[in-house]
Amino acid sequence: MFGFGVAVSFGLSADDSAPQWIAGDHHIHSRYSTGWDREQEPPAPILGGDAIYPIQMNALMAKYFGLGWMVATDHGGPNHSQVNLEQAYPELQQSRLVVPEVVQFWGMEFDTPGADHSSLIIPRSHEESAQLFAIESRFAKREPWPADPSWDAEPRLLEALKFMTTQERAPILIANHPSRSAKDIGVYGQYTPAELRDWNDTAPNIAVGMAGAPGHQAAALNKDGGAGNPRPRGYYGNARTLGGFDQFTAIVGGFWDSMLGEGRHWWVTANSDSHVHYSEGGVDFWPGEYSKTHVWAEKNHDAILDGIRHGRVFVTTGDLISALEFSVNASGVSASLGDELVVEKGAEIEVVIRYLDPESNNARGENPSVARVDLIRGDLTGVAEDRSNDLNPTTRVQQRFPAHQFSAEGGMSEVRIKLSAERSGYLRLRGTNGEELEPTSDEIGEDPWSDLWFYSNPIFVRIAD
Q: Residue 84 carries which DSSP code?
């Protein structure tokens, strides 16, 4: 079971060497997400042509909004690997000196062959810049000039993943905004269930998950912060977000549960996708202003990356909660987020749910409260024969816990429930400040601050052979 140290802002321990919840963001653009002067041959990068802020500015705002880690993730174009290597990476090194309180990773928003964008997170090392250059220059689909359509094919991504497995320090790849190109619920676009299974099969230690809550959540806000701007939340024009979350995550018994039902270690995250802040006419929040990916780790590069890789993560919007203690216990043995508990068939298991509702206001100047927490349960059904499967019909809401059912224990809200383990399966959580039993489609112009959710990654419970 997780333990908590001295409580400070955003639920972090005062001791960086102790495991703690560390909030972060793996999808942040800087001025090195460039525009391109196509009058030149090859096209020349135009700094600030797509996103506008220096990396140091992103880090300062991340610190201001309570983040302890972040990733610099600029997407590419013709010969962009050189822009990253020669211009963006030196700025990241400067940013680490300017804002040492934030653990800053090198990476990029990978121009994924045969798919939409993905966050590529590079482990910290003296070779990190060369490691990213080796990947981007060989495999980013917009890298070659003249443009080569053959680079934009899924087999090249699988080749890239195989290449990453040969690198001395394994990176992490997270699929971003999975359904932004989808035509409708269940009608997929650049990301498909079969494709993400291929990723996870090829490199299960690298391709570990997807953005549950995409960025661009401020699309409906005007420059003064008021809602009503007629733009879809997350820029999901067709298959709308559901409570700010992608359909791949938000539908109980949907794609995410189909992956978990196969026993896959496939995690969800949240991010800002920050390019331009809404107060300057953009569609974005600052890193950490609205969405946070909380990782249970010591505050250093290796530990944070290990926490992401192994699913010790929960995500939240609007600072609905700042810490989560979720465990399954049987016969004196306990498992937490990302873990597996092995029990005898019919064993009694105790589920413990504890969350910290921060007493401070969020970036909107509000202090939202959790209205309900849902315990979601699904069975392990084996590897799907149909690679396009996006359903796990065994998944259900095991129990809904209104806020009044929680007791105050050690400054946290706590509830316990005992269940019988009859089949191998998994448990996960979600919570909200609203009254909807299931997240509904987000309307054009909807105020994102009114509709907040948190999601945990799962705990697996396996029946002993």
A: I
Task: Say whether pLDDT at 3 is over 70.
Answer: no
Secondary structure (H, E, C), 93-104 = HHHHHHCCCCEE
What is the amino acid identity at position 386?
A: D
CA distance 264 to 249: 14
The b/e string for 129-160 (b: 16+ C-beta within 10 A; e otherwise) is bebbbebbbebbbbbeeeeeeebbebebbbeb
Residue 10 counted as domain residue: no
Q: For the full predicted model, state whether its pTM sits above 0.90.
A: yes
What are the beta bridge partners of residue 416? 352
User: Residue 356 sits in a domain of what CATH number?
Assistant: 3.20.20.140
CA gap 241, 27 in Å, rounded: 18
Q: Long-range contact list for 186-190, CB < 8 A, 24+ apart?
A: 186/247, 186/390, 187/239, 189/116, 190/115, 190/116
What is 227-245 written as a DSSP string? B--SS-GGG-SSS--BTTB
Q: What is the residue range of 341's domain?
A: 19-463
Taking the alpha carbons at both ends of the chain, their separation in whole angstroms is 25
HSE on the CB side for 194, CA within 13 Å? 9
* DSSP per-residue codes, 327-376: EEEETTEEE-TT-EEEE-TTEEEEEEEEEE--SS--TTS------EEEEE
Asked whether the beta carbons of 14 and 5 are under 8 A apart, the reply is yes
| pLDDT tens by residue, 32-61 | 999 999 999 999 999 999 999 999 999 999
pLDDT at 13 over 60: no
Report residue 107: phi and psi, to 5°.
180, -160
Q: Of 286, 264, 253, 267, whose CA–CA distance to 211 is shortest?
A: 267
Place of tokens 């499967």: 389
Residue 437: CB partners within 8 Å, gap ≥ 6? Answer: 400
Bridging pattern class, strands 347-356 and 313-317: unpaired
* 50 Cβ neighbours under 8 A, 6+ residues apart: 29, 33, 34, 35, 75, 275
Number of domains in the chain: 1
Q: What is the pLDDT of residue 246?
A: 98
Residue 2 lies in a domain: no
Residue 72 β-bridge partners = 28, 106
Q: What is the pLDDT of residues 68-121, one digit of tens each?
A: 999 999 999 999 999 999 999 999 999 999 999 999 999 999 999 999 999 999
| Residue 219, domain member (yes or no) | yes
CB count, 10 Å around CB of 365? 8
DSSP state of 143: -
216: region left, alpha or beta (phi > 0 left; psi from -120 to 50 alpha): left
